[in-house]
Amino acid sequence: MKKILLIAGARPNFMKVAPIYAEMKRRAAEFVPLIVHTGQHYDAAMSDAFFDDLGMPKPDIHLGVGSGTHAVQTAKIMTEFEPVLLEHRPDWVLVVGDVNSTIACALVCAKLGTKIAHVEAGLRSRDRTMPEEVNRVLTDAIADLLLTTSQDADENLAAEGIPAERIRFVGNVMIDSLLEHLKIAEASMIRNELGINENEYAVLTLHRPSNVDHREVFEGIVDALCDIAERLPIIFPVHPRTRAKIEEFGFAGRMASAGIRLIDPLGYLDFMRLYSGAKLVLTDSGGLQEETTVLGIPCLTLRNNTERPITITMGTNVLVGTDPDKIRDTAFAALSSSESREFAVPPLWDGKAAARICDELLSAQD
Ligand code: UD1
């Protein structure tokens, strides 16, 4: 029987941890899973709503860390997590994704000699100005078991000298959650509440510091979005970081009058219902590039690079960067094209990744 601590810290972690936790609970003779919430995200809309929608119980341990600069947040997670690790002495700690909670908990484990499994290992944007890229590279360097979503990730890890015996291609566990909840999300009333019909709106998400923290960059993006919204209304659930910047820069009035509807962040099911009916998605999120690929929804990624190239080569994703003309022209081209783009679902994005992750943990040496 393996005791596993599952680390969940920020919004994009929760839909990755949920299917793994559920699978471990089903295999109760083999696993004892405990959920550790670091508290990196703490607003009800950024955290509790996801636990509820995903059917996860309250975390077994809550570190209550909260926001801070990178150093403060990472250090606080480490000092709060260390005594938990010493008390529980798990066989493995499983970290997911690339947020500060991922590297902070992995680093504590490495120093105390606890085995680390990293889910979503090996993704690389090759852009070290992204805090997530630093978190990814460092977590992979110290993890014992690297569980990957795509074969390009295996190649990235091999190129960094990580031995093949530590790497396992298991597929995309976030898609387990997507496929499990797609039907359930049909009960969401979000489209009715917003008064919108399928295929008659676009969805926007934006929260990368590189896009929203600098006035000139954000303003250029807003210019392009306002033009797009004149052709197709844009629904914009606004991340707290972005909300603060919109207020600081005074963009809200202009966006609203152009047809961009700023709404509060949505829970997992409401958001799924929203993007699954969109004609177009514009985003700088990592996860949404993958979710739109699986559902065949055109996605414009407002970044110059992506750590998820398979969403471009196989899926529906296009990188448009932050140049207003490029964003506008690519969106208009996507909206006027009558043919839907060919796409395919990447290998092992099949709803069974959690089972494969559990199998790999069972066969790995403690
Ligand atoms: C974090 C992750 C990012 C992920 C994103 C998803 C890191 C380095 N970044 O970025 O990879 O894509 O989550 O949302 O780990 N805030 C609230 N309420 C909350 C959480 C945050 O108001 O529940 C505000 C705070 O003002 C905080 C700011 O948002 O300072 C940023 O939060 P933080 O967790 O530092 O980074 P994110 O931008 O959310």
Describe the structure.
The chain folds into 2 domains: 186 residues, Rossmann fold; 151 residues, Rossmann fold. It is α/β, with parallel strands linked by helices. Helix content is 47%, strand content 16%. The strands form 2 sheets. Strands 3-2-1-4-5-6-7 form a 7-stranded parallel beta sheet, with helices on both faces. A 6-stranded parallel beta sheet has the order 10-9-8-11-12-13, sandwiched between helices. The radius of gyration is 20 Å and the shape is globular. The site of uridine-diphosphate-N-acetylglucosamine has 18 residues, from helix 1, helix 5 and helix 11.
Portion of residues in helices? 40-55%
What is the 3D shape?
globular
Uncertain runs: none
Please report the distance between the alpha carbons of the first and last residues: 11 Å
CATH superfamily of the largest domain: Glycogen Phosphorylase B
Strand content: 15-25%
Strand tally is 13
In the CATH scheme, the class of the largest domain would be Alpha Beta
